[in-house]
UniProtKB/TrEMBL annotation:
The protein's Enzyme Commission number: 1.-.-.-
One Gene Ontology MF term: oxidoreductase activity
Gene3D superfamilies: NAD(P)-binding Rossmann-like Domain (3.40.50.720)
Name of the protein: SDR family NAD(P)-dependent oxidoreductase
Stored SUPFAM superfamilies: NAD(P)-binding Rossmann-fold domains (SSF51735)
Keywords tagged on the record: Oxidoreductase
UniProt xrefs under InterPro entries: NAD(P)-bd_dom_sf, Sc_DH/Rdtase_CS, SDR_fam
Cited PROSITE patterns: ADH_SHORT
Family under the similarity heading: Belongs to the short-chain dehydrogenases/reductases (SDR) family.
Length: 258
């Protein structure tokens, strides 16, 4: 009997790698993707006794997503972990627009393109599970991280909507909403000197396990970590200008040195 097959994006490190590891430990052969070198990740995952194919490419582009789908071939996708994404710190007016566009295209455009392609096939055979990595950042206006938070607000909302559209099928959509997690996210986003980056960060192993468990149960969402659950609940009843000021204190450049 063939094993289940999973696609994991953003799998070179952090939450994405841990999701791939958990899927492998639960008997999934893998197709992993990222815009960074995947050799080390693939080697570790193959040591778990599963087949692992890797595609290095820019999932912000249709061409990058098409390369990933071509690598999947005609294999039935049992689980899709749509985890690829990255942030961008500093003031919006100080950012290069090419960097802004890449965040939007990675976090939203490429993610939606991949999900539509894979989930159409899932719906046709009435089976499949999807875990989308959103963020509790989607609950807050992200002063000094405005574009990233905006993309996560979109992704959170999109995931809930798609889950509802598919509620009468056997295809499940789950949204994983982590808080600040101990990955290379902040270094890549140019936020290593911020208060949020220098504070206590969540363990990506636990975050990934929370997401995987929610997906397997068919739950529509999971906020990982009790502190993040409290923060997201507070955000629902707090005025947006207050939330923006709170976020400023966490994400303003240099705030971690004060």
């Amino acid at each position: 009997m063939s094993r289940n097959f999973a696609i994991v994006t953003g799998a070179s490190s952090g939450i994405g790698f841990e999701l791939a590891r958990i899927a492998a430990e639960n008997g999934h052969d893998l197709l992993i993707a990222a815009d960074r070198d995947l050799d080390a990740a693939a080697t570790k995952l193959r040591a778990l006794g599963v087949e692992v194919d890797a595609v290095e490419g820019d999932l912000a582009t249709p061409e990058g997503v098409d390369r990933l789908l071509a690598a999947a071939g005609d294999r039935k996708v049992d689980a899709l972990f749509a985890n690829a994404g990255h942030g961008l710190g500093h003031a919006f007016l100080d950012q290069d627009f090419a960097d802004i566009q890449h965040v939007v295209d990675t976090n939203i455009t490429g993610t939606l393109y991949l999900i539509q392609k894979v989930v159409r096939e899932m719906k046709a055979r009435n089976a499949g599970r999807v875990l989308i990595t959103g963020s509790i950042a989607g609950y807050m206006p992200g002063a000094f991280q405005a574009v990233y938070n905006g993309t996560k607000a979109f992704i959170d909302s999109f995931g809930w909507a798609l889950a509802n559209e598919l509620k009468e099928t056997e295809v499940t959509i789950s949204i994983l909403m982590p808080g600040a997690t101990d990955t290379d996210f902040f270094d890549r986003a140019g936020m290593s000197d911020t208060s949020v980056a220098t504070g206590k960060l969540d363990d990506p192993v636990k975050v990934a396990q929370d997401g995987y468990n929610a997906m397997m149960k068919g739950e529509s969402e999971v906020v990982s970590g009790w502190k993040n659950k409290i923060q997201s609940s507070i955000a629902n009843v707090t005025p947006a200008p207050v939330l923006a000021e709170m976020h400023r204190k966490m994400a303003e450049p240099g705030s971690g040195k004060r």
